[in-house]
Each structure stands twice: as structure tokens, then as C-alpha cells.
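Following the same procedure, sequence and fold were stored together, as reproduced here:

>
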Amino acid sequence: MLPIDSTLPSLSEVFIKDFRSLEPEACTTADVALSHSDALAFFQRARTLSRAEVEDNYPTAPCFVEGTLRADGQLCDWRISAAATGFIHCDGATPHEWYFACDDCSDLLVK
């Protein structure tokens, strides 16, 4: 398991690559309608938690957006679900993961 760091790095170059849904009739792009700047705002507003805290205390959603960003200059992958949870995963010389939950992001997710 990768180290969990509660200190959020400096984020930049946040880009959305794709939308995916395991239940396309129930969970659509409207449920997680983010722009690039909305995705950045999500990570800035959300609380950083452990993976277990997110899995134990927040619902899962069958759809999400994913993309790339730079965390302290390192290229990373990210995902934000319609349940207002997400993560950032960075490979490389010092791999890291951050898990997020945002209780005040409904204005970002649903348009």
C-alpha cells in the first residue's frame, strides 16, 4: 500500500480525460458534471482522509470522472465519483495516494 499523506500538495494542470459509468441508466454525466476548474475546486474543498475512512463512511457511486493533474510538479491520475469522493494517485520515484470526501461540493458535481 502506498503512503497516505494528509498534506495536500500544490495542484495544477487539472484535466478531465473521461467519464465512466457502471450503471449508465442510473448514473450519468449529469451526476458528476465537472469542468477542469471544478475538479480542482473539489480537491481544494474536500477533506483528506484515509482510504478506509472513505470506504467505511461514504457511499459508493457507479459513475465518476477521471483525469490527470500535477501534484507538486509530478504527473498524477485522479478520480472523482458522483458520491463526492475521490482520490489522487501518483506513481514515480515517490508514489503517493490521497483520498478525499467533500461534504460541501454538491454545487460542483450536479449542474
